[in-house]
Design goal:
This protein is mainly alpha-helical and 212 residues long. The chain is built from seven helices and no strands.
Length: 212
């Protein structure tokens, strides 16, 4: 009787794992989170150098990033640098997640993967357009905060198709963005903590918990 009960429990667990693998993307790599965090910190330090060189450090957050033709030209390196970091972070995540999927003998590109990417990219794309359309009119502190808020919303949206930790990482990113709005003079520091440090902690946790 005990053997039959154990067998039933194993069957139920196997069915549950099968259902999870067919409805959620479970090949996210924790290492990609660590690398993303390091890239984010490097980007924030580079952004601080650009901001300090161009703006008065005491009030940079109170005026638009791209105020007038000169402002657009001066801050173009900042926007290019952040775009490169974003592309690198996504490329690393895609590469490591694909490698993890192959190592586990499963497909990386599935209908679930596509749904997750669509759920991720819609808020990200909206946030990118918001930044481009308002960079010349909205205070820089709001732009910095919006990067965290839209990114967090993207993670929350994609979280239902992958590990639950992604959802909570998104909640923390949105919270960090709101702190940026409340304390704009500390925007860069909050961004380093909210994007860089949170990703490193998340990546370490995922790497240790899921071994990848």
């Amino acid at each position: 009787m005990t053997n039959q009960t154990d067998q039933h429990l194993e069957d139920i667990q196997a069915i549950r794992r099968l259902m999870e693998s067919s409805s959620r993307f479970l090949s996210l790599s924790g290492l990609s989170g660590i690398i993303t965090g390091v890239l984010g910190i490097a980007g924030a330090l580079g952004a601080q150098l650009i901001i300090t060189r161009i703006c008065a450090p005491v009030d940079w957050y109170a005026r638009p990033f791209a105020e007038g033709p000169d402002g657009i030209r001066e801050f173009l390196p900042l926007f290019v640098m952040m775009a490169v970091i974003l592309i690198l972070a996504f490329s690393v995540a895609a590469f490591l997640s694909t490698r993890k999927a192959r190592k586990n003998g499963i497909k990386a590109w599935t209908p679930v993967t596509r749904r997750m990417l669509v759920s991720l990219l819609i808020p990200l794309g909206t946030g990118g357009l918001f930044i481009l359309l308002t960079a010349a009119t909205v205070p820089a502190g709001v732009i910095v905060a919006s990067t965290l808020i839209f990114y967090g919303l993207a993670l929350i949206s994609a979280g239902k198709f992958t590990f639950g930790e992604i959802h909570w990482l998104g909640v923390l990113e949105v919270t960090a963005g709101l702190f940026c709005l409340a304390l704009p003079q500390y925007s860069v520091l909050i961004w380093v903590l909210g994007f860089g440090l949170l990703h490193i902690v998340y990546g370490l946790f995922m790497h240790l918990r899921y071994r990848g």
